[in-house]
């Protein structure tokens, strides 16, 4: 990875992801849910059994004090205060396996993870298509341990009078995602290491992310050359322009035109990929808001997974190679 690419990507993060106008993202991604369920409250739940989760060797989050906890909301489950990363495989029926694999990165503003709607449900749907899927539970920024304090902290972020942090410099912006990028790199390394066991083609491992997970997917792609994903999917993430490497992977992007966070800042990312003459497919749905994921809604945004699956098929990921 060259210093130039590092610097350009750090600047892109500073412009697009951590600018003052996007501060509410950390709270907004938490509320990744269908609009009709906005009245649902967060309810603490025991940490679900995850017998297949594989610990990644990135170690505990430095300085973490609050322990991992989970809650339910919108008939779905969320994790927060994740201090140690894990990877959970969802393997297809061997008779249907294509050899392709996808790392699934849920969103949640780097404060929570939408583990069900943007993680497990997506992975199950991919496995049904014959694609091995791996849900990455990456380390998160710490939040208050008790639920009332957590809810208050998120409400403060939504408040119009909330203090806005200063615009970060590029080095700080890149450092902010360092733990998550390390987790993603470890996930790629583990999948390729165990590829024979899982019947995976090492050259056909991609990544799909949602909101903050889309940010992580793009950051990992552009800043960590050792990952080299075969393809990437960015679902309702920022679309600011970036410097695109000559070997950038095919990219699938889906966004709703009424997304309150990322639908009004242009389509620089799409234009960047096109200018670099790299494959890109972009779906802009009329309605869907933010965080539609695998929720079944009356809007056409619900069709994003079908479109993504067709795109994977077009790129040969739904059939065994050779």
From TrEMBL:
Keywords per UniProt: Hydrolase, Signal
Residues of the Dienelactone hydrolase domain: 107-298
GO molecular function ontology, one term from the record: hydrolase activity
InterPro entries registered for this protein in UniProt: AB_hydrolase_fold, Dienelactn_hydro, GDXG_lipolytic_enzyme
Endpoints of the signal sequence: 1-37
Pfam family, any one: DLH
Record keyword Signal present: yes
Tagged with keyword Hydrolase: yes
Protein name, entry field: Alpha/beta hydrolase
Record organism: Sphingomonas molluscorum
């Amino acid at each position: 990875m060259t210093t130039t690419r590092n610097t350009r990507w750090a600047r892109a993060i500073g412009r697009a992801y951590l600018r003052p106008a996007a501060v509410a993202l950390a709270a907004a991604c938490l509320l990744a849910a269908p609009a009709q369920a906005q009245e649902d409250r967060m309810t603490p739940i025991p940490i679900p059994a995850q017998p297949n989760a594989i610990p990644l060797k990135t170690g505990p989050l430095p300085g973490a004090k609050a322990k991992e906890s989970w809650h339910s909301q919108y008939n779905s489950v969320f994790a927060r205060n994740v201090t140690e990363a894990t990877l959970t495989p969802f393997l297809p029926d061997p008779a249907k396996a294509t050899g392709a694999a996808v790392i699934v990165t849920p969103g949640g503003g780097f404060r929570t993870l939408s583990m069900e709607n943007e993680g497990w449900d997506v992975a199950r749907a991919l496995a049904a298509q014959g694609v091995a899927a791996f849900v990455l539970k990456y380390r998160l920024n710490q939040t208050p341990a008790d639920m009332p304090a957590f809810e208050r902290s998120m409400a403060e972020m939504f408040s119009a009078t909330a203090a806005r942090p200063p615009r970060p410099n590029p080095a700080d912006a890149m450092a902010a995602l360092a733990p998550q990028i390390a987790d993603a790199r470890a996930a790629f390394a583990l999948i390729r290491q165990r590829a024979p066991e899982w019947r995976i083609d090492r050259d056909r491992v991609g990544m799909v992310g949602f909101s903050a997970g889309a940010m992580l997917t793009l950051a990992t792609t552009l800043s960590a050359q050792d990952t080299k994903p075969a393809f990437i999917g960015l679902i309702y993430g920022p679309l600011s322009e970036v410097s695109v490497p000559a070997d950038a992977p095919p990219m699938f992007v889906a966004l709703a035109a009424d997304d309150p966070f990322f639908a009004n800042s242009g389509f620089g990312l799409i234009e960047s990929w096109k200018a670099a003459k790299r494959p890109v497919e972009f779906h802009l749905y009329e309605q869907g808001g933010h965080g539609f994921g695998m929720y079944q809604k009356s809007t056409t945004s619900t069709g994003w997974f079908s479109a993504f699956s067709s795109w994977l098929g077009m790129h040969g990921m739904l059939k065994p190679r050779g």
